[in-house]
Specification:
Elements: E1 10-15, E2 19-24, E3 33-37, E4 39-42, E5 54-57, E6 79-83, H1 92-97, E7 106-110, E8 113-115, E9 118-120, H2 130-141, E10 156-164, E11 168-169, E12 176-183, E13 189-195, H3 197-202, E14 211-215, E15 218-221, E16 233-236, E17 242-245, E18 260-261, E19 276-277, E20 285-286, H4 290-301, E21 309-312, E22 315-317, E23 323-325, E24 331-334, H5 339-350, H6 352-361, E25 397-399, E26 408-412, E27 426-428, E28 435-449, E29 454-460, H7 461-468, H8 472-482, E30 496-497, H9 531-553
Parallel strand pairs: 6-7, 13-16, 18-19, 20-23, 29-30
Antiparallel strand pairs: 1-2, 2-3, 4-5, 8-9, 10-12, 10-14, 11-12, 12-13, 14-17, 15-16, 19-21, 21-24, 22-23, 25-28, 26-28, 27-28, 28-29
């Protein structure tokens, strides 16, 4: 029946043999007439009740008083409060004192009790939960990252740790620091940083993809020369900063805020610190320093589970074609809670056989940089090539101004490091600590020329042999006969290295004018020696003919 529930106060208007006619005294249904019948009530089955019995009675009792909680939402003319014991809940005393229309209509009976270890007859304890008040204060001061400005104080923010970088040191001072990237639910991001002692106390509290409440960090602007990831504001977290982990149920799944760059476009991002690397293409990732003990160990322990990586600010190196390497400010996230990462992990599980084949065949060892050269690849004129650029593609002609030079050097077979060991001798390399034999490796300088300028660059290994038309052993043989000068390295030019070259229009170039060789072509299959080798042989023959004449003149 509407208006009737446990604790409803009624005014009895008529008593009958089997019913009571009553009027609801308070609440939404105040003044409504109701009829209360007798109902059967049965005792509960418990150890206290030895005998179960049932009786039929009216479900009411005389209302001399009510509990404080039952009196909520009621306004009374007179209120009498009986405090045999102090209240036990937050704001309960306030509720009891707020139901009368005036303070003169309130009377309180306080039984002797102990308040703050003192026996008193006129005081009672008011219970206040300070956590509730603190939560209310936090909700007032809770701001998004975008609304927290430099030098602002008294703020709070709920953030997620998106990146946690390794501890590093400044180049010009012994100061140690550790950087973070925080994000909030609105998609705003900010950089966090800790210094020295704060790293030991606070660094272990922050974990990637966990949510935290951070309050009163020192907010400042980042100087333009130190800005990364387009972040201009920095929070300096010290031992005084409030950092508390927020316990939230459910798994944390971040929105896909990352923009992956295809591996074939890595060369154009060699000097960038703000790009993210993604996609599944066979390549080499080298881990250095603390990355080996942290992310490296984690990858080694979970390699069978197809871990997915999000890598930021990696260094692009020209090793085995185009490869990746960590730097001090790099970030590697293993199995991030991103939807695309889960999709990629599922794809890896479905294509496990293909991945095992890639791991077995190691195609990246013979990777040709030509796969990174596309029709839209940016070409640089030689006069615009800067020493600070990591990789540049140039369209040029090869020429030899310094043709009498040493076309080889003695190196260890595996690591290709320079050595003074004799040909064929086996020693332990000082660089890789492996026993290897010394073998000649082809190397020489060549001039690159276009319509704007000429630069000198060095070329190594198989590409050098293909262009030269000689093997490294043959080059060593001619050197021992002629004893020409060493490579052109008098310090008058910036040294460059040819990582890869290919002939752009092989079909339309005649064999006589062919100065470029495709790296896939083999020198053994050429019917005629290259122009380089012909010029070199001619110079060697002229030198050998001139030697007896010089001896006769002596």
């Amino acid at each position: 029946m509407e208006g009737l529930c446990n604790g409803t106060r009624l005014i009895c208007r008529e008593l009958r043999h089997n019913t009571i006619c009553a009027e609801i005294a308070v609440g939404q249904y105040r003044g409504k007439r109701v009829f209360l019948p007798k109902i059967p009530l049965q005792t509960s089955d418990s150890e206290k009740n030895g005998i179960l019995f049932k009786r039929t009675q009216f479900p009411v009792k005389l209302c001399f008083a009510m509990m404080i909680n039952k009196s909520q939402r009621q306004t009374l003319d007179y209120v009498g409060i009986y405090l045999r014991e102090p209240v036990f809940s937050h704001s309960q005393l306030y509720v009891a004192l707020s139901h009368a229309k005036s303070s003169s209509a309130i009377k309180a009976l306080i039984v002797s009790a102990t308040c703050r270890d003192v026996v008193t007859e006129c005081k009672t304890r008011n219970v206040v939960f300070h956590e509730v008040l603190e939560l209310a204060r936090q909700m007032v001061n809770l701001l998004s990252i975008a609304n927290i400005k430099p030098k602002m104080r008294g703020w709070l923010a709920h953030v997620t740790v998106q990146e946690k970088m390794h501890i590093t040191s400044s180049q010009k001072s012994p100061t140690r620091y550790q950087k973070f990237v925080f994000s909030d639910d609105q998609g705003s991001r900010v950089e966090g940083i800790m210094f020295n002692a704060a790293i030991e106390k606070m660094g272990s509290k922050l974990h990637t993809f966990k949510k935290y409440l951070i309050s009163n960090a020192d907010v400042r602007e980042i100087e333009e020369q130190y800005q990364t990831n387009d972040l201009t504001i920095q929070w300096v977290i010290s031992a005084k900063t409030v950092v508390e982990e927020l316990s939230e149920q459910g798994s944390c799944v971040l929105t896909n805020e990352f923009t992956p760059i295809s591996f074939k476009d890595l060369a154009s991002y060699a000097d960038s610190k703000s790009q993210t690397v993604g996609q599944m293409v066979p390549t080499v990732l080298s881990l250095w320093n603390t990355f080996v003990e942290n992310e490296g160990k984690l990858l080694a322990d979970h390699h069978s589970k197809h871990p997915v990586l999000i890598c930021r600010r990696l260094k692009v190196v020209t090793y085995n074609g185009i490869a990746l390497s960590t730097r001090n400010d790099s970030v590697i996230v293993v199995d991030p809670p991103v939807r695309d990462a889960r999709s990629l992990k599922n794809w890896a599980s479905r294509n496990e056989k293909e991945l095992l084949a890639l791991r077995r065949d190691k195609p990246y060892n013979n990777q040709s940089p030509k796969i990174f050269y596309g029709p839209r690849q940016k070409l640089t004129e030689i006069r615009d090539v800067l020493p600070t650029e990591k990789v540049s593609w140039v369209k040029c002609m090869f020429s030899f101004e310094h043709i009498l030079q040493k076309y080889w050097y003695m190196a260890y077979v595996k690591c290709r490091r320079l050595t003074s060991a004799d040909y064929g001798c086996t020693y332990t390399c000082n660089h890789c600590n492996e026993k290897q034999s010394a073998q000649p490796r082809c190397r020489f300088d060549i001039d690159l020329t276009d319509h704007s300028d000429t630069i000198t660059a060095s070329i190594f290994g198989e590409q050098a042999e293909t262009l030269l038309g000689f093997t490294a052993s043959q080059a060593m043989h001619y050197f021992n006969r002629l004893k020409p000068g060493s490579t052109k390295n008098d310090g008058s030019y910036q040294r460059y290295t040819i990582v890869y070259y290919f002939e752009e229009n092989a079909e339309t170039t005649s064999a006589e004018n062919q100065l470029h060789r495709d790296s896939n072509a083999s020198a053994d299959k050429e019917e005629l020696p290259s122009k380089t080798s012909r010029s070199l042989l001619s110079s060697l023959d002229e030198s050998e003919e001139a030697t007896p004449k010089r001896q006769r003149n002596k």
